[in-house]
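Hi team, as promised in this morning's meeting, here are the two structures we talked about. I've kept the exact order from the run log so nobody has to guess. The first one is mostly here for context; it's the second one we should focus on when we meet again. Sequence first, then the predicted structure tokens.
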Amino acid sequence: MTRRADILLTALAPAIWGSTYLVTTEALPPGYPVTLATLRALPAGLLLLALTRCLPPRNWLARVFLLGAFNFALFWVLLFVAAYRLPGGVAATLGALQAMMVIGMARGWLGTPIRAGAVLAAAAGVCGVALLLTGPEARLDPVGIAAGLGGAASMAAGTVLSRKWQPPVSALSFTAWQLSAGGLILLPLALVLEPPLPPLTMSNLAGLAWLGLIGAAATYAIWFRGVARLEPGAVSMLGLMSPVTAVILGWGWLGQSLTPLQISGAMIVLGSVWFGQRANRPAGVRTRGTTVEHSARIA
């Protein structure tokens, strides 16, 4: 596939993740963040393990559990804490800082050069998300801010390390390993910290199926495939598609209004994503046609 096709396919994952807020608020019981995160990760991971029939070798277990913690367990728990303690716009703006963090982490762990254009695109994306989602009534809670920054750092670390550690298996198997590990980490936390779930309705089950099968298993396989093929900075910029989708779904599904300022923010986000792909493009990749040279993959 061409680099452009890889970008478009990878962008599907965060675009679909933008539906998480709508599904969580409209279809899932409130007040069970860790339990719901466990039910999102563990069944999806075990299903993929059954389909791929590929278990991680012993020498990969530590890496798999670390990646599962960064990409799922720690990230989702901190994400829920930030969502509960901060307005959604503030939490999303803090999450958008992930793109800036990836640039620094990729420099330290992968030796990726820091490009001024990439930093500019990431900064513009943060400003766009702030305009898109943050209102004048936004309040700042210290614990929520710490959780939001921690969640962004966790996902950034998971993205860069997923690129650094590439096992000789398919993206689907790599996703299965990480989802299962993340779910196993979350399971004891859910049992200790939260009461049992109430009887689930058909709407609850449908929401869990969407978040687990589509919002976790399918989309993270696409995401990790993109992490393996694209530059870390380019992949992290695609994550900004998630708040754009969330706002579009809120407007179209929930009847929420869009102000001119929000529309401007959405345009800035989309422009920063486009510019970020160009700024992070390796020198050996053409803008049109097929890829002629990719950056060396670091094992």
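And here is the second protein, the one for discussion:
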Amino acid sequence: MNLQERINAFVKLGEFLSQFSNEVIQKKDNIEHNDVFFDGFKHQLKLAEEHNGWFTKENIAFALSGWANSLTQANLKIWLKPYNFETVNQKKVAIIMAGNIPLVGFHDFLAVLISGHHVLVKQSSNDKQLLPYLAKYLEYVEPGFKGCIEFTEEKLTHFDAVIATGSNNTARYFEFYFKGKPSIIRNNRNSVAVLTGNETPEDFKNLSEDIFRYYGLGCRNVSKIFVPKGYKFDSLFEGVYHWHPIMDKAKYANNYDYNKAVYLMSEFDMLENGFFMIKEDKSFASPIATLFYEYYDSTEALNKKLTEDADKIQCIVANGFTENEIAFGATQKPELWDYADSVDSVEFLLAI
């Protein structure tokens, strides 16, 4: 396969996914191999939801919509234009995937295959229904991918490089275990938002998407906000209140009740509105249903702090605060070129 053939295959995959990215699944005409794969993927979606209570229909559809919108000729061409694929030395690249949100490891999967390498995937037990099925679809639309994609539940062997994502503890294990291989090792990161007190109701509505989408389980979810001294939280609570039906989801409600009980028994100061709590805390990673906050004295001091803690932060959501900030409401809509941990995985893959 040449690069254009690989691009064409992923474009067709995006068109296939577009059928499942709305509240109502709609079968479209002229989607290749729909007669073979459409009903089967509907079944895989059902299995994914049954297997993992955090993978609701809404969140799976949101993830699929993101990939359907990304996998277009235009987006793929923009993404890949800066790179030279002429001299790729084909290798087998292992990927160890997280399972916190649906298809969270898909970008690595895409990057390995689009670069011309073979991929060996070790999935999380929390997210193992969707990707193997999509890999089969890829092999149908582009037979050149046959033999290039392998899934395993065993110990990884016979590979040339690795991309591994896990917790801070597993990342230390990965660094030791894979020290003899070219690698990208990712650990825990969280996203933050910087508020000034001048935010509009629309800003808070958008920010709520950054906080609550995927129940806050993603590294791109805002888990902490920085606010100026004397900040009043009324507008924040008003702006996120439309998310209150989230309490209808048992897993979220159970976490809310548990964390609230812990805070009350520990006599921690916190504010809450019946489905969401905010607590002053210097940590970046907040529990489910909780948003941490911290006061800042000046934007200069805060910028210095965030620069020093850059290895703990995935995204900074703000309006006019820093050069690499992300707009309110955009954390869960990354472009193909928005690399996790700001590490260019395609550049890595072309160099191994």
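Starting points for discussion:
The first strand starts at residue 92 and ends at 96.
The CA atoms of residues 49 and 57 lie 7 Å apart.
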